[in-house]
Amino acid sequence: MTSAMTSGMALGMTFGMTEAGAAIAFVAPSGFLPDPSTIDRSARFFTRRGWRVQSGDSCFERHLRFAGPDELRCTELQRFATDRNIDVVMAARGGYGLTRFLDRLDFAAIRRAERFIVGYSDFTAFNLALLAQAGGASWQGPSSLDFAAESPDEYTVGHFFGVLQGGRHTVEFAAEGSADCEARGTLWGGNLALVCALLGTPYMPRSRGILFLEDVNEPAYCIERMLLQLLQAGVLARQRAVLLGAFAPVPPQANDNGFDLAQVVAHLRAVGTTPIVSGLPFGHVPRKATLPVGKVARLAVAGGRARLEFQGA
């Protein structure tokens, strides 16, 4: 696994407002939870740290492939995201379903409430829509499932609570094969498939900055096709750098004939002008950083090492 580290906090340090009495709400705006008991385990993790926990009905509902009807999931996300008695709103999981009700969310009200809202995977649709519609910042990071594990990843836990504490944060990681570069701009992105799905919609930001991308279970040719879509749509040319997180597993196809993710990255570097930096500790993996969507970040790559800096909550 690619090495990564964070500075600005030590593992186990507490939330700046003091964790005791802080409130978190779990909501499932996309797919249903195959095992709803994971919510109970996540809740125990936070209550042991002194947090108050709310779990939306969506965390326990099933409707087709979704965590309850669209109206339930939309209403809960809107309510939690604008409740000033809640400090953190966390997606229970990803899946599919958020794009079904983006047009019903009041993004201006969500931005005014300034809650710490975090998730990844399908939650990318919310992150990008909030930025595009209201200029609001939110977070890509762990879901409740990450805290339900028997032994949650120390880096994931430590970085999440460190970011909540505020201050400057640095994520350092090995960036093998990446050319030396420096970049500064709005950090934004998330799941590659969702970024592509929002192209041409009013929920796609026109950000010029540092784009980060990840995905899972996509064959190499599908990853290349989506990256080329972003290139040909002019999205990559507007960026000062592109960060690639985890994409594993990348299912091999019978006719790949040696075509793999490394070939995809090499081709993208050859046909584009924007620096492509690999190795970001983020994605559908246990070890993930918590990253802002809509805040200014600085990136420096030198000698095969990358350093990403941004402001916490």
Can you give me a brief rundown of this structure?
This protein is α/β, with parallel strands linked by helices and 313 residues long.
Task: Outline the structure in words.
The protein is of the alpha/beta class and 313 residues long. The protein has eight helices and 14 strands. It has helices spanning 37-48, 70-81, 107-113, 124-134, 154-165, 192-197, 220-232, 261-271; strands at residues 4-7, 23-27, 52-55, 88-91, 116-119, 138-140, 168-174, 181-191, 209-214, 241-244, 276-278, 291-293, 295-302, 305-311. The strands form two sheets. An eight-stranded mixed sheet has the order 1-7-14-13-8-9-10-11, with helices on both faces. α3 crosses α4 (124-134). It is globular, with a radius of gyration of 18 Å. The two termini are 28 Å apart. Mean pLDDT is 93; it is low at 1-17.
Strand-helix topology:
Blueprint: E1 4-7, E2 23-27, H1 37-48, E3 52-55, H2 70-81, E4 88-91, H3 107-113, E5 116-119, H4 124-134, E6 138-140, H5 154-165, E7 168-174, E8 181-191, H6 192-197, E9 209-214, H7 220-232, E10 241-244, H8 261-271, E11 276-278, E12 291-293, E13 295-302, E14 305-311
Parallel strand pairs: 2-3, 2-4, 4-5, 5-6, 8-9, 9-10, 10-11
Antiparallel strand pairs: 1-7, 6-12, 7-14, 8-13, 13-14
